[in-house]
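Reproducibility note. Readers wishing to regenerate the assembly model reported in the main text can use the exact inputs given here. Chain order matters: entities are listed in the order in which they were concatenated for prediction.
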Amino acid sequence: MSINAKEIIARRIAKELKDGDVVNLGIGLPTMVANFLPKGVQVVLQSENGFVGLGNTPDKGLEDVDVVNAGAQFVTINDGAAYFDSAMSFGIIRGGHVDVTVLGALEVDENGSLANYMIPGKMIPGMGGAMDLVSGAKKVIIGMIHSAKGNPKILKECTLPLTAVCGVDLIVTEMAVIEVTENGLVLKELAPGININDILRETDAHLTIDDNLKTMDIL
Amino acid sequence: MNKIISIDDVMEHIHDGMTIMVGGFMGVGTPEIFINAILDKGIKDLTIIANDTGLPDRGIGRLVVEKRLKKVIASHIGLNPETGKQMNDKVLEVELVPQGTLAERIRCGGHGLGGVLTPTGIGTLVEENKEKIVVNGIAYLLELPLRAELALIRGSIVDKVGNVFYNASTRNFNPLMAMAADKVIVGAQRIVEVKEIDPNNVMTPGILVDYIVGGEKP
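Running the prediction on these inputs yields the following structure tokens for the assembly.
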């Protein structure tokens, strides 16, 4: 189920990306988005360790130890790529030169605030580039499993230390697409086979149901 | 002036309790020869400023595992579980800094600036004890410069006057750190004659580099 759920999320997020967008994908589920770009859509992927033009995983035996992504995995670069140092990398991020970032989350709330970098006393990986990405990217999309085994992650207010206040624009889960608006969260789409009650059961935030509620396109 | 020295000579410049910047990102672009030497010589109580604490068997991660550090200033410690464990056990102090802010603080330290205003971290734990400054209606945090006594960086190609070329994603924090420390030592994967690096391709000018040590593995 979980592999399938992640693929649903990645497929749906891929449809948000426009031809020519500069995109930063977080490690893990967000990285999968690159596998499902619609036909005719080419994006430039930014890797916060210092380049644009991130390409595919190299074939076995063709890895270059100097070419890795921000998760220290071997990658390739595409034609037209460019390397730079960490100050420029984050100048690109903070300066509004990244059109879309896709990140995972532990919690998101009604204001679009996000928690994804620590669980005090338990798990403290650090924020890495996430705080800069949320404050700087033009559009912030959260891709995450809707709930933690039934326990809501979409909340009235985040309980964990925040990564950013009011930074999120869109939440995509395996069950729904939810937009963050000035008037709170709006349920825009439901995954096939999911009904509104399923969503409400696994969500602890006020949701406005869009007049034009659609079925998620995950093909 | 001959800048090329042996790894044994380097160790005269590294002492217990020092504050050291170490280049690299998850071990990529980290000068492993210096990590090896610090481990061999039993140097301890270091304060390390770096992007991350590497992996347990790679980069700065090995210094953490061997308990050589007193404090770490970094943006990410998640790929080395030992760092989080020592932090929770209160044997290692960890200051987490957003990655872009870390880069800018180091840049400020090396560029003679008094600090930088960034929107990153507003409304989060990062803003604790920091001055907030509003410019044109937008709130920023005042982030202060970082400097170190020593920077240990890694160059892919280094010429004999210390001009450095960093290949691909090994560049990351290295050129920033080369500006921000009292003493800068580069671990070179390849040392070449002067003029073999086109001046157009020099990423860190040799005037910033005090010593060069060969022997960095690819």
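We highlight two features of this model. Helices of chain A lie at 2-14, 29-32, 86-94, 130-136, 196-201. Residues 2-40+96-215 of chain A form a domain with the Glutaconate Coenzyme A-transferase fold (CATH 3.40.1080.10).
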